[in-house]
Amino acid sequence: MLPVLTALEMQSADKAAIEQLHIGETRLMELAGSETVRVILETLDRESLDGLLFLVVCGKGNNGGDGFVIARHLLNLGASVDLLLLYPQSALKGINRDGLTTLEAYMEYTLNLRIFRSHEEALPFVGETAYDALIDAITGTGLRIEAQGSELPAPLSDGIELINSIRERTEAVTIAVDLPSGLDATTGFAAFPVVEADATATMAFLKTGFYLNDGPEVSGELHICEISIPPFLVDAPAALLGDEAFAAESFILRERTSAKHSNGRVLIIAGSESSEGSMLGAAILAAKGALQSGAGYVALSIPPALSGAIHVAVPEAVVISRDLSAIIEKARWADAILIGCGLGRDAAALSLVSTLLGEEEITSKKLILDADALYALAQSGSSGLPQSAADILITPHYGEFSRLCGDTVNAIASDPIVSARNYASLHGLNVLLKGSPTVIAAPQGQVILNTSGTEALATAGSGDVLSGMIAAFAAKGAGLRDAAAAAAWFHGRAGDLASDVASLVSAGMIVEGIRKSLEEIFEIEE
């Protein structure tokens, strides 16, 4: 899995490369420039840049210095370049000033370079020019956005608005260097204005801001540029990015000579019925999610009156009653236990959850708490968490998590990585915080981001399917953190495969997509 860094972590890695590995700033900048040109070629789908015209907009920091190097490489590859300096040359520090001096020397040998020394100087020319691509080298990761939508001062705003306006009225592609200017590398908050990039060439590592708040909307396609800053300089990144390879490794295939009991025994305590209605569907979807994810044996504890419907909908599942002794007996047998899907919120349901969380046979197993179990937990406060539990995972969405931790939904959404990590560490459990991205945090502080899936998952019952999948992955042997992260990846992919039209996907279709997602992965591996 790839590391995902905050701005501060990236600065520390950059500093360590210079001070500990003796990689000079000039070398880092040269690598950044050449790697960005590689991304430009890929983005434009070109082998040659002959005859193409670029506008490179540069700030006064190292991001602008990268822009000078990029401009030089573009010229070397036969392109024409208009270079716009947003700040006077006197504002440039040594390494960046040297990069500009080199370009100025180029002007004695080529007519393919124009240098504009202010926004005002450039306007009469760039407004009438048809560019093939626009290069944003204005701010990079150094910009801090205190609040979403904060206004940027000139000349930063002038440069950003110029790039966006040309992009809007022409076919020019915008490529951001390291980070779209106006975006906070850590929080993903965007200032006003912010560069709307078609692609971002980010240096060395991914940044958390790409995945949070405004980041996904303005970053475009992400490309990592290898600039000789090795991963061992990053001791503990803010997060890791869950991916296809990790998901495949976490899915444990059945041995040829295995039996059903050795392939994951899942106990699901879910579903409810009252005079006001039934939530049997949640139990059915959770059970199907577990079975489609390869669980060898699934037992389902439901109100007895619902057993007939379960036998029709999920004939593979064994049905037991809500009698506590029956549940405890099956808990001793289970490898993983899921509590909560459609369990209800009446007094009996709240009492059942409280009782179950006080039973060692339950809390000694891999335990997933979802939906109404989280409501019951929120009603009892942190005192409701079993102190002796070996391994717990909670799977809240933002609203449920707000009830658990006491923070507002907006506060959680603004920094879900920190919110999930803090809660997991405080209470010694695993958290899967549903959202975009989905954040999986372990009690030791490790965080995995899952970005698979689309709006196809925004449908009732989708979370029940995911919980069943997690239970199956865990029952087959994966740790709860890895089970949650891998199941989340396959869940997202299943939604993609369920229909060509994401807005038409239902939870039942996601269940069918699970098989497709698993077949796709293991066909690729073979």
Shape: elongated
- Unreliable residue stretches: none
The CATH topology of the largest domain: UDP-N-acetylmuramoyl-L-alanine:D-glutamate ligase
In the residues, how many domains can be counted? 2
Helical residue percent band: 40-55%
CATH superfamily of the largest domain: Ribokinase
What is the average per-residue confidence, as pLDDT, rounded to a whole number? 94
N-end to C-end Cα span: 21 Å
Q: SS-based structural class?
A: alpha/beta
Number of helices: 20
CATH architecture heading of the largest domain: 3-Layer(aba) Sandwich
CATH class annotation of the largest domain: Alpha Beta
What is the alpha-carbon Rg in Å?
27 Å
- Order of strands across the biggest sheet? 8-1-10-21-20-19-18-17-16-11-14-15
Please count the beta strands (DSSP E, at least 2 residues each): 21
Largest sheet: 12 strands, mixed
Task: Write a concise synopsis of the structure shown.
This protein is of the alpha/beta class. The model has no long low-confidence stretch (mean pLDDT 94).
What labels would you give this structure?
7-stranded parallel β-sheet; UDP-N-acetylmuramoyl-L-alanine:D-glutamate ligase; 16% strand; 43% helix; 526 residues; 12-stranded mixed β-sheet; Rossmann fold; alpha/beta; single chain; 20 helices
Structure overview:
It is a single chain. The protein is of the alpha/beta class. It has two domains: 2-238, YjeF N-terminal domain (Rossmann fold), CATH 3.40.50; 244-406 and 448-525, UDP-N-acetylmuramoyl-L-alanine:D-glutamate ligase (3-Layer(aba) Sandwich). Helices cover 43% and strands 16% of the residues. It contains 20 helices and 21 strands. The strands form three sheets. It has a twelve-stranded mixed sheet, with helices on both faces. Helix 3 packs parallel to helix 4 (94-106), helix 18 crosses helix 19 and helix 18 crosses helix 20 (507-525). The longest helix has 20 residues, at 25-44.
